[in-house]
Design a protein that fits this description.
alpha/beta; Rossmann fold; 7-stranded parallel sheet; disordered C terminus
Length: about 250
């Protein structure tokens, strides 16, 4: 497909694996010249930048590098993310800071650096989660970060709309990614997720990426401030438990 001439480049942050890699591929297929930024870019990846999203100065430098090469940005996708399964009272400050730093502060750093270079009609799309609105035991820091991410996106949509820049969030449910593999390997977890998903499946990253590519396209030119579930209907049901139930205390004699 021909390059989207005049629309600038697409920047996919967290684009070397999982949903982010699928987003980069979908945007390339749609004709976008695409740059990937990631903590650990895949070996041999062309147009890739090593980046820790928690470093605001490094983010600004990476964006400046992309703009210098491509003159402007037309689509920015924030797909960097991390998660840990830890009971809320056992989350130490370092773990809290890591999850919030990558999932929320990193998104702010990218939005702040990139938005001034996004052309009118361009877009910023963040990968959130259906867990932003449905609390999940063991994921307090993850849920909080994703709820904050969507609030950031909505505020940005209000402020950047007059400049013609659209801001949206995509909310996946269960997706088969490296981040989820260890969870899915636990006995009974996959079956529980399937039971809670009306379409009875596990999404491929491309199924999320196709929606992201749509939001970056002219066909979505009147969509901003949206949080769009792409979850096979999973948000309509109760989330499977990720924490083991506490063992009831044995009754005391006497």
């Amino acid at each position: 497909m021909a390059e989207l001439n005049g629309n600038g480049a697409a920047l996919v942050v967290g684009g070397s694996s999982g949903i982010g890699a699928a987003c980069a591929e979908a945007l390339r297929t749609a004709g976008w010249p695409t740059v990937v930024a990631d903590l650990k870019p895949a070996p041999g990846e062309t147009e890739a930048i090593a980046l820790d999203v928690r470093d605001a100065d490094a983010v600004a430098g990476a964006v400046a590098e992309v703009v210098s090469e491509h003159r402007a940005l037309g689509a920015v996708v924030y797909a960097a993310g991390t998660a840990r399964v830890t009971p809320v009272l056992e989350i130490d400050p370092a773990e809290w800071d890591l999850v919030l730093g990558v999932n929320l502060s990193g998104a702010f750093n990218v939005l702040r650096a990139a938005a001034p270079h996004v052309r009118p009609g361009g877009s910023f799309t963040a990968i959130s989660s259906i867990d932003s609105a449905a609390p999940v035991p063991g994921l307090a820091h993850y849920c909080a970060s994703k709820a904050g991410l969507e609030a950031l996106v909505r505020s940005a949509a209000l402020e950047l709309g007059p400049s013609g820049v659209r801001c949206n969030a995509v909310l996946p449910g269960l997706v088969r990614t490296p981040l989820m593999e260890s969870v899915l390997e636990r006995p009974g977890v996959t079956e529980a997720f399937l039971e809670q998903t009306p379409l009875r499946g596990i999404a491929d990253p491309a199924e999320v990426a196709d929606v992201v590519a749509f939001l970056a396209s002219p066909q979505a030119r009147w969509v901003t401030g949206a949080s769009l579930p792409v979850d096979g209907g999973m948000s309509l049901t109760e989330h499977p438990r990720l924490l083991n139930e506490p063992t009831p205390a044995a009754p005391q004699a006497g």
